[in-house]
Write a structure and sequence with these properties.
By secondary structure, the chain is an alpha+beta fold. The chain has 11 helices and 12 strands. It has a 5-stranded antiparallel sheet, with helices on both faces. Strands 7-9-10-12-11 form a 5-stranded mixed sheet. It has a two-stranded antiparallel sheet with strand order 6-8. Helix 2 packs antiparallel against helix 4 (151-182), helix 9 (317-331) crosses helix 10 and helix 10 runs antiparallel to helix 11 (423-433). The model is unreliable at 411-420 (pLDDT under 50).
């Protein structure tokens, strides 16, 4: 059975459909043959029994008039019915030249003795193969028999067999043709998919043809190709933007290091670079290395997209905001963060949400004056958790608002400040992944107001005893 299963699984869908069609037709023909054979056999038997009854009654009427011993029994013509007269003493009379019938059965003898009026017997289960009808007459009985004839059934069976074979062959051919026609869109779909795999051409959409499930499959694959095109375009843009952003700090870092190496080789490092200039250069190198490290981390985080091993869990966003504020304070001790948070539960990834909040606070800290804190507010609005990060800086120009969350975008006023232009883009990605929305507006203090809305989760606490 397992070998047959393995063979079946290795067959193509077209072959399976052909086999299923042929098998279904063969089973239908066999069932029709069985039903038709039973009906035909019943009809032939009923007709033969009626004829035997009619012939027996005619012979019995003659025997009543002439007597069982004197009733005329014409010689056997060589075919047709067979007759026999059972006398009251149990002896029998048969026509001249008639083949011998099976012995009179016990039940037939009882009819001759008057136990019953008539009896229909079948020798189908024995070797005699006769259908015998016995009817009482003149103190004994008369019997009319007919040899069982299976030739009509056999002829019918042979005809049905030939018709069945023809139907199976035709069914297999029709099934093959139907399978070829029905699977033609899938064949074209497979060819198109193979072509895309070989040529790497994601711009070639598969023609939308067919109907029902085929059309839905084609549309799904076209949607997948569109998503792959978008992903490839995003990767290309990321690579181009990353190369552009890495070029400036790497160039500056390389020039400063080459300067130090050149002066050191000449032995003029101490004379050419006084202690104050050397300290400033080393600080610049440290800042450039830190900028490259931050940029590499942000690029890695951004390139991962929504792929993350971190699973979502139910968490209090207030704890995430407080942790991010503490981390921002340790990174920039001169930036004051004023928290005003309310407990609100959301479903999300803790590390990703904390990174997004930290980026918001870091961004606000770049612009806030030293004497003005960054205000972080978290409110529970029922269906939403609303986080606002408010700074007292110069604010965002109207022309820059639509591009605030774009990757690597930095306003002209921010060119002189450290940063890669990826922080708010990461915020946007995290918020989108959590089904939220990020917006920017002008703060009442004149600075920027970054607002994040996330779906809140309503908790039902068990009631007390």
């Amino acid at each position: 059975m397992s070998r047959l299963t393995r063979w079946w699984r290795r067959r193509s869908l077209r072959t399976r459909l052909t086999v299923i069609a042929a098998t279904a037709i063969a089973a239908s023909v066999f069932l029709a043959f069985q039903v038709a054979s039973e009906l035909l056999d019943g009809e032939l038997r009923a007709s033969a029994e009626d004829q035997l009854r009619a012939d027996s009654r005619l012979l019995a009427a003659n025997a009543e008039r002439a007597g069982l011993a004197q009733v005329e029994l014409p010689p056997y013509p060589g075919s047709g019915r067979l007759v026999r007269v059972v006398l009251p003493d149990g002896s029998i009379r048969t026509p001249v030249g008639q083949p011998a019938l099976p012995p009179v059965s016990e039940h037939a003898a009882r009819v001759a003795q008057g136990a019953s009026a008539d009896l229909m017997e079948s020798g189908d289960s024995d070797d005699d193969g006769y259908l015998v009808y016995t009817v009482r007459a003149g103190g004994g009985a008369v019997q009319v028999a007919r040899a069982a004839d299976d030739s009509p059934i056999n002829t019918f069976g042979l005809g049905m067999l030939l018709i069945g074979l023809l139907c199976v062959v035709c069914g297999a051919l029709v099934g093959r043709a139907v399978a070829r026609t029905g699977l033609a869109p899938i064949d074209r779909l497979t060819a198109a998919a193979v072509r895309v795999a070989h040529t790497r051409d994601l711009d070639a959409d598969i023609p939308d043809e067919g109907g029902g499930e085929i059309r839905q499959l084609i549309r799904s694959i076209n949607d997948m190709l569109a998503a792959l095109r978008d992903s490839r375009q995003a990767q290309r843009l990321l690579a181009e933007d990353a190369a552009h952003e890495l070029k400036t700090p790497l160039t500056s870092l390389r020039l400063n290091i080459e300067l130090l190496i050149r002066l050191d080789r000449r032995g003029t490092l101490d004379s050419a670079l006084p202690s104050e200039s050397r300290t400033r250069l080393l600080n610049d190198l440290g800042a450039q290395v830190a900028e490259l490290s931050t940029l590499a981390a942000e690029l890695t985080d951004l390139a991962r997209g929504d792929v993350s091993d971190e699973s979502a869990e139910l968490l209090d966003l207030a704890d995430v905001v407080a942790s991010a504020a503490a981390q921002a304070g340790s990174r920039a001790p001169d930036v004051e963060v004023a928290l005003d948070v309310t407990s609100v539960w959301v479903s999300g990834r803790p590390a990703a949400l904390q990174r997004a909040v930290l980026n918001l606070i870091d961004n606000a800290g770049k612009w806030s004056p030293v004497d003005q804190p960054v205000q972080v507010r978290l409110r529970d609005l029922g269906a939403s958790a609303v986080l606002e990060v408010d700074d007292a800086g110069p604010g965002i120009d109207t022309a820059d608002v639509p591009r605030v969350f774009d990757r690597f975008y930095r306003a002209d006023s921010a060119r002189a400040l450290p940063g890669s232009g990826l922080g708010l883009s990461i915020v946007q990605r995290v918020v989108d992944a959590h089904g939220g929305r990020a917006t920017v507006a002008r703060s009442a203090r004149g600075g920027a107001l970054l607002r994040v809305e996330l779906p809140a989760v309503s908790l039902v606490w068990p009631s007390g005893p």
